[in-house]
DNA sequence: AAAATAAAAACGAACGTTCGTTCGTTTTCA
DNA sequence: TGAAAACGAACGAACGTTCGTTTTTATTTT
């Protein structure tokens, strides 16, 4: 009887997700190289060797995390669903939704940083070509529907929009624990969004 | 005869800088944990044990790099020297100077990323309290002298200004190698600065 | 100016530990 | 009953650091 490879639902994939979750937590806490396979196996409550039934090596775990846990999958629908007739309202609302969503996964940025530091962003580069074609039309539509947006290149719009969040969270990371953090106004993010909308220059009267 | 500890100029500090330079290059290329003391000793053309005459351990090398090679020392004078009567001109010029300066040290951002990933930004946090009191007055002065700046909190001004660069370079890192990079307009940075100055919203007629 | 001397720097083998991965075996599951 | 999953000891390699020694450098004494 020739062994047919069957496409079974595979119950044991639960373990795979358990490993992924444990590794994700540890990578976020300690970084990639500082996290050992033994630590991952302990947190996943699995024998060391058992991991290798699900991932061929350590980097494969990280790659899986990058793909499965990247927040863009959750963020994209939020932007699409953001309401508001004017571009101003729309950006305000989608920024708000995005911040609250990222608040649930506050260390998502570290994922990107580990990527850049340890892997020279090679994994992200690979699937950027998959993501961006999904995101760009959204921004093109936003630019088209809301009349009071300046006539900006959609890529620039995307880049500056995402950049607003990057910068917000990075500065937060760099300033936390510092005495300067005290100087920050309570509604910092509101003001950052406002600058994004209207710029820093006073309009000529 | 009691041995008096004297404060000699110490010629051998050249070696210390050689180690620092070699380590800096390797950290940038590979990350912190992925770089071994042996690699550092090889690039510095020094015996493995010799390093420990100048640094007590690996982390001390990184700390020294963070402090000695942080670009803020070179950037601050540039901002102070940037000319332009209007706030618009000033920001334009200082942004231009900053970008060209950072272009000489294109991986400076990685320094911050390694900090965040491997050390939870603890070193930067420590000397933020030293840096920010130097930077803030510059931004306060900028806001005061140039009349056509909106009345923004100086910390917000600083934060959004630096954020503009962070986001610009991060997006560059994440998009490089991707096909989307082709879509980017040539004068991306000019447009980003323009958004910073005037916002994305069309002025009501 | 030369010699003596002590401190600083360089050396590289060696230490103990931990790393990622492999492997033969047992257990669980379909 | 055969495949998938779990196990944990074992492997060789690489890690950061230490150590005793030699070499270099700078200073002090002749």
Q: Oligomeric status of the shown chains?
A: homodimer
Overall tally of structural domains of chain A? 2
Unreliable stretches of chain A: 1-8
Let me know the number of strands of chain A: 0
Q: Roughly how much helix do the residues of chain A carry, as a percent range?
A: 55-70%
Content of β-strand of chain A: under 5%
Structural class of chain A: mainly alpha
Please give the largest β-sheet of chain A. none
Distance between the termini of chain A: 86 Å
Instruction: Please give the radius of gyration of chain A in angstroms.
Output: 21 Å
Residue-averaged pLDDT of chain A: 86
**Most extensive protein-chain contact, per-chain counts:** A-B, 65 and 65 residues
Order of helices and strands of chain A: HHHHHHHHH
**Count of runs of 4 or more consecutive helical residues of chain A:** 9
Describe what you observe in this structure.
- Two copies of one chain form a homodimer.
- Chain A has two domains: 11-68, Homeodomain-like (Arc Repressor Mutant, subunit A, Orthogonal Bundle), CATH 1.10.10; 70-198.
- Chain A contains nine helices and no strands.
- Chain A has helices spanning 13-30, 37-43, 58-69, 72-81, 87-103, 108-119, 122-145, 154-175, 188-198.
- The longest helix of chain A is centred in the middle third of the chain and has 24 residues, at 122-145.
- The termini of chain A are far apart.
- Residues 1-8 of chain A have low confidence and may be disordered.
- Chains A and B meet through helix 5, helix 6, helix 7, helix 8 and helix 9 of A and helix 5, helix 6, helix 7, helix 8 and helix 9 of B.
